[in-house]
Write a structure and sequence with these properties.
five-stranded parallel beta sheet; 446 residues; 26% helix; homodimer; 25 strands
Chain lengths: 446, 446
């Protein structure tokens, strides 16, 4: 057999996680990575902590595997090389060398699209002004770190209150700035139900963040943000309104797009076109509860999808069953986590959901470090099937969401969660783990 | 209907957790609790932390619900009243009032045996000397707290290296004592596989505990412990060699005993005799992986069994499916957790198990508080079914065992664990949760 030529577009996890798996199946594969930026395999999730000064030592601390390391294991990593067009019939990629401006064509047997996502930038007046920053690439991080450290930034305005928005808000509070978060909806973190969002709002207030709910941003001018509630002054604006799949290349080549405009893939991470694959923030996933197609831009998902794509490219057989949208974040001392469907999503999926919330503590109540936490649990009326969960609380709260994620994946009902043999000792949990207490409440309600 | 008369023998969780459930079904029930000690509904698991001075405010801090509180909700709690015999034919309990020395008979429609466990006291010379302490009741705790605070205790010897033994060892280190732990087997914490026990041994050494492995205790004399390795001096001895079910009453009445001599019950917590129930450390459980009967003396199990018994006594229908032996402990800054079968147990159950261990970190590697952890995972060869897991590591490690406990309960295989949508953010986990990394390793091995 001739060694297969594999071209990976994008140096993000969805692309790079494929490499080891490809080599496992086909050690002879000739793998080329086209990355238009300067970095590979870095943790975008670490950017807020770099900017906030919690992670020190420079942006390279977030790099799991440098281009040089990839090259040492035989991968042809081409930085500043951008795939500008796909010729799917001839199985060629058109490439621009951004350093020289020259272009060339690269043939492939397998094309793996890992073009990632980009922070949404709504077409508002002034959005291209230099004080308006997205948070996605390590180059964004370097820009933000530079201004955080040297820029005399006193007033920061964050647009949007998702995970990235709030983590960036915290980062700039840690840098001593006055931070305002503008959210057009009535709660922060709309992946949570409103009651849990209110707990996040309270934590933000406790940390000195000025949260403006129900306020829309209309545009930007010099050190000004124009909103539905008037003009707000800001030295720096961070966009935290979500990530959209970067699919220009795929769309222009005629590949089918699915949920939220992400590249359509099957559970093998294959597009409809033989030999063309995709993984990461640029492609869609299947939701394990609703069964619908969703777009979840998270590093964990990108890594898993990348491995699955890699195994299949290498001639193996792997499938990625899907996602629950599990996510976790730390807003100061408050931990926030969610998994599965929230009430709005359950309604949209046509599922009759019952929601309960309980308050408990992270440890035995008498343990000195006991902190409050709230667990919200959604279950299907009648069957009792667990649909989703949300946790907001003090240190030690959030990773409990994994118990619910596992239970939901297994199709457990609330009785089965009550019966789980979860770990207990006073420094770790009350004798009834809060997750089990929530399930007990839900049992009464379903 | 005449109100049912329910007699509960024992004020521990297995008994008291039944009460609310009995009332839910039969609000008219006349419930009497016979407790030979002075306390109800306390957390025995908190005793080491009380003795060590981590939990302050006295033994009553460990009481979840006092006798007075139980009485206020209509339960006839009789302290210092001991059930001395059961007349199962006439449905009567013979009771000794320990304060007055008088005896009387108490009739019942339902008898709920929650006599708990007791620390094993092997019949060694000198074991009844007052410097040899068990750790079970709150009265034991008060004794130990008194000597810890006022007793001039300089040298403490702990016999056995299970959870209680090691937690008590830590407690006395915190009190400034020189602590020796004597364990007859070749590793501490024999509920772990030897490799994980070795990690615990290392943590103990780091905390200044003198661990003597492979040493047997032969007897006790004044401030001396006679062992297979010579005489060791000690001002205080703590027995931490396990808990045995307290079943004298049940056995004398002819009730069948099962695993480790614990009271035999079905999944309704019913004994073979109509109207006689049992829950907690005195009765057996079903192991969810092996299917065999086991004796697990843990507060979580007692609470769940107590509720199930209560629901059934109240005329409802509930079942307790079983246990995984999930347990967690903190030995200084080191967290230890286990669930399911270990290698020895798998072998005994006739299951062909593959074990893998991986090292990872509790958070993203670049997070300042990142701590090492080791995850060991057992899976069935061929099927890949997850059988058990063990975790030893720094702060934030141990509660991950719940993910494995949930996965095992659901009958998941290692591939399904790899695919789990577990929560990730840099302060909480590497992008691949260590549990998933262990499952990936196991996938290669099975």
């Amino acid at each position: 057999m001739t060694p297969p030529r594999v071209v990976i577009v994008g140096g993000d996890p969805g692309g790079m996680a494929a490499i080891s798996q490809i080599r496992k199946g086909r050690p002879d594969a000739a793998i080329t990575v086209l990355e238009r930026g300067s970095w590979t395999s870095y943790s975008a999730c670490g950017i807020p902590y770099l900017v906030g000064g919690i992670v020190t030592g420079g942006p390279q601390r977030l790099v799991a595997r440098s281009p040089e390391e990839h090259r040492r294991s035989g991968t042809d990593v081409r930085l500043h090389h951008e795939a500008t067009a796909l010729d799917l019939d001839r199985r060629e990629v058109e490439v621009l060398d951004r350093d020289t401006g020259s272009t060339y064509r690269l043939g492939y047997d397998h094309l793996h699209l890992a073009t990632g996502g980009r922070p949404m930038r709504p077409p508002l007046p002034g959005i291209e002004l230099p004080f308006v920053h997205g948070v996605q690439s390590l180059d964004d991080a370097i820009d933000l770190l530079t201004v955080a450290e040297h820029g005399g930034i006193e007033r920061v305005l964050v647009v949007g209150s998702g995970y990235i928005g709030l983590e960036m808000a915290e980062a700039f509070v840690l840098r001593g700035a006055a931070v305002t978060v503008v959210e057009k909806r009535a709660q922060p973190m709309t992946t949570l139900d409103p009651e849990m969002g209110a707990l996040v709002a309270r934590a933000m207030a406790g940390f000195g963040i000025d949260l403006r709910l129900g306020v829309e941003v209309n545009g930007f001018a010099d050190r000004e943000v124009h909103t539905s509630a008037g003009v707000l002054a800001a030295d720096l604006v961070v966009l935290g309104i979500g990530v959209e799949p970067r699919t220009d290349l795929a769309a222009a080549a005629g590949l089918a797009l699915g949920a939220k405009g992400a590249i359509r893939v099957d559970e093998r991470q294959a597009t409809a076109l033989d030999g063309v694959w995709s993984a990461g923030d640029c492609c869609e996933s299947t939701h394990l509860v609703s069964g619908g197609k969703v777009h979840v831009a998270l590093g964990t998902v990108a890594n898993k999808q990348g491995r699955v794509a890699g195994t299949n490219i290498g001639g193996g057989r792997a499938r990625f069953p899907g996602v629950l949208g599990t996510a976790v974040s730390k807003i100061c001392a408050t931990e926030v986590a969610r998994t599965g469907l929230n009430e709005r999503e359950a309604k949209r999926a046509g599922i009759d959901a019952v929601a309960v919330a309980i308050e408990s503590t992270t440890t035995a109540g008498y343990w000195p470090a006991a902190a409050d936490l709230t667990v919200r649990l959604l279950a299907e009326r009648g069957t009792g099937r667990v649909l989703g969960g949300q946790i907001v609380g003090g240190p030690g709260s959030a990773k409990r969401i994994d118990t619910l994620a596992t239970a939901i994946t297994a199709g457990m009902d609330v009785q089965q969660v009550v019966d789980l043999d979860l770990a207990y000792a006073p420094p770790f949990s009350p004798v009834w783990d809060p997750v089990a207490v929530a399930a007990r409440e839900a049992l009464k309600a379903v």
